[in-house]
Specification:
Structural class: mainly alpha
Mean pLDDT: 87
Order of helices and strands: HHHHHHHH
Shape: globular
Low-confidence stretches: none
CATH topology: Four Helix Bundle (Hemerythrin (Met), subunit A)
CATH class: Mainly Alpha
Bound molecules: fe (ii) ion
Radius of gyration: 17 Å
Helix content: over 70%
Strand content: under 5%
Number of helices: 8
Number of strands: 0
Largest sheet: none
């Protein structure tokens, strides 16, 4: 493969830019949810939200938080706090996964998830990410960006247009609950054998 030119290299987002881009996507999905009354569409938006949120948090927990814990003053506590917020959000997602979107509680739970996720995003972008950017080199941020992209690629958020029935997407949306676990297992490589 040829080397990237200087300009191409400058265009590759670093890890913080990548994660912040994910955040904007998630905000858009929540917005799309509030704009629909169609139950099928609600289900599909929530499924995509779950996939995106779980793969984002898993990538953060595997690749980014360990580096953050080391680099930032008080980073260990900060990271523990972020992880506990991830698991709070996961509990809500697990409930949503098994719930009929026609139930009125479905909307309430989505609103609860939105509040929790938006608060987490705000905190990361206001406190954790700026501190992290200050404490590590741009080169390290770029390297972590590559790792995060690689991890996220393991789990697609949309079915492939040519092969919607092919793995791993069909495995993700197969019958029965457990979407949160299935996304996590794919990224961590658990449950492969
Ligand atoms: Fe995040």
């Amino acid at each position: 493969m040829r080397e990237l030119t200087f300009i191409e290299e400058a265009l590759v987002p670093d890890v913080i830019e990548l994660l912040e881009h994910d955040h904007r996507e998630v905000e858009e999905m929540f917005l799309a949810y509030t704009k629909t009354t169609d139950v099928k569409e609600k289900r599909s938006i929530v499924d995509k939200l779950i996939i995106e949120l779980v793969r984002h948090s898993e990538a953060e927990e595997q690749a980014v938080y360990p580096a953050m814990a080391k680099a930032i003053d008080g980073g260990k506590d900060l990271v523990e706090h972020e992880i506990s917020e991830h698991s709070e959000a996961e509990k809500i997602m697990a409930k949503l996964d098994g719930m009929d979107p026609e139930k009125p509680e479905f909307d309430t739970l989505v609103a609860e998830l939105e509040a929790a996720v938006l608060e987490h995003i705000e905190e990361e972008e206001r406190v954790a990410f700026p501190k992290f950017r200050e404490s590590v080199s741009k080169e390290d941020l770029d390297k972590l960006g590559t790792t995060v992209e690689r991890l996220k690629k393991i789990v697609p958020t949309h079915p492939h247009p040519i092969a919607p029935d092919h793995p791993p997407f069909n495995a993700l949306l197969g019958p029965g609950a457990g979407l949160v676990d299935r996304v996590r297992d794919l990224i961590t490589g658990r449950g492969k054998d």
